[in-house]
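User: I'm curious whether this sequence folds into something compact or stays loose and floppy. Could you predict its structure so I can see for myself?
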Amino acid sequence: MDNYILMNDMVQDHEARMMHLKRYYPFFRLMDTGLSQYRDGSYGRLDMSYIVLAVLRFFIEANHFQDQPVCYEDYRQFMAGLLVRDFDFTEEEADDELYQYIFDKLCNEGRPFELDYYDPAAHQQKTLRVRLIESELKDQQVLYRISSDAVAFYLDTKEVREESHISVAQLLLEKMIKAQNFRGGLEVIGRINMEVGRLMEERHEIQTLLNRHVTEGLAALENYHDRLMKWFSEEQRLFASNMALSARAVQKMETDRITGEAAEEVYQLDTALKNAMKRHEELMHAYMQMQKAGDEALAKAKRTRFRPSVDFMDVGQRMIEADDPELLTYLVLPLFAPKIKKTFPMSRVDDLLLYKPEESAAGELVEKGREQMYVYEDELAEERMKDNFSYLLRVLLDKIKQKKEVTLAQLNDLYAMKFPDQVLENRDYYAFLVHLSQKEHYDLDMIKDHPDTFLEDTMADFLKANPGYEGLKFRLIYLPDETISILERFEMSNIRFERTEE
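Assistant: Here's the prediction. I'll summarize afterward.
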């Protein structure tokens, strides 16, 4: 029996122990690398362990106490103050590259920290993934939040892990109120709020998992339920006990007419405890809402188990999180292997025998009404391009008619002067050049009667509306050795447009 308990402790509980240990793994990975290799050790005096814990505390303050996300500029200002205050940095030493380098290490270049371990119960190698900081894109801005694993790790660095941090903190708070250590009680309430914030953040993560993967989300929700309900009734009792102690302390202050700093601490403690109870109730209300969402997700999954369509955005996001490129084969292989062989089901034979063509031949009654004209986007685009091409053609043909030749560089200057509304930034201008380069020689008389491209069709309409270009012929001579700089953004080869008599 003793041997069974021993083996069960080692084998069956190993995965749970590794799940608990994973939150420590990023911290020691960051400590091992440190900053000794950055810029040949110029910043070796920086203590990476202190920086990691300080940044986590900064994120906890912003995300959970102030309920605000963090942008990179907020982190940069915090880090600048920390290095100057705690490491005596000068403005020359602390620069943006150093802040970015430290932040990239904390985020692990956007990838999760991976801890490989062997599961003796399943007889297979597994990988645990954990992040310290998570990001999301909102309103064209990247916002960052601390993960629940990072909050749990930060709390573990200061106190022994029990069934619930809140229960331990509540008992400690009770002792401090009885000992009239009200300032210390305020610190304990702050730790209670951090733990409630971590549980709230974990609820958000489970909600996201429910939306993406119902099976895994329901398993995480069940585990969350077991942990939350296990101590909730005890929490209510401890909150009531501490509220009673706080109320008696306030009453004693008012009876004895005690004023000053001591009275202020008592009132602050009473207010903070009420706010903590409110946050605790909000957590339970949010949990009940998530339970309903879990039931709805399960019902929806049952209804859509065999879906006729695929949400490629969701599949792509899950592939990115799994960090396994081989998963793409499940999407790509079906596209390369279409089912060419067709079959006719025997169940449709009766339909053929019972088919009545005279009934199906009856046409559908069309109600008389005014015919509606629809204009599609591609038609609007063609009309716009034809209109813009006409303006560009007029300048080109006039210049060729006046002079024997003109280059593309000279045309660019002419267009820029003639059309001040940023013609060189107009996409239709470059479409015009592409269409024009399809041929090396143009005869306007022949184009007027026999256009065979989109541009020549536009030319024909232009020539009919604007006579005076009869007999004009020109050719395009490409000059690959000459380049033109466009708006200092890109370059293109020059072209010479030359009038011919052939």
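Summary: Residues 377-499 form one domain. The first strand starts at residue 113 and ends at 119.
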